Here is the input.
Amino acid sequence: MQDILKQYETVTQADVKEWFFVGNVSDFPENSGACIKYKTKQIAVYNFTRTSQWYACQNLCPHKMEMVLSLGMIGDKDGIPKVACPMHKKNFSLKDGSNLGGEDLKIATYPVKIENGNVYIGFSD
Ligand code: FES
Here is the structure.
């Protein structure tokens, strides 16, 4: 089970080797999540229209290894964009993937780029 988790590692802008096209802006719901596939990874993508920011993270919740984070409610906690897992409501920062409840759970985050109405996610593999 932990093997599934191992394939998810945070990618920073500087690490990006490939900007993977995942669709047009209009393909994604506003203020909620969608799930895309890259190789063997499931990635959750969120469009925050209030702040005009996009975020991406692993779809896998590290709590019980459920592929559900794209279905989570998004919002912010003290200015930090976050997603709440729909299963047991654990909150994760979409900026650095940390668990906002202070637990030792972390998710991988990925950079998102919007260009000419197209959405790209940065990967390093
Ligand atoms: S599976 Fe996500 S909080 Fe439990």
About this structure: The CA atoms of residues 35 and 110 lie 13 Å apart. The pocket of FE2/S2 (inorganic) cluster is lined by residues 61, 63-64, 66, 85, 87-88, 90 (CB under 6 Å). The longest strand covers residues 41-48.
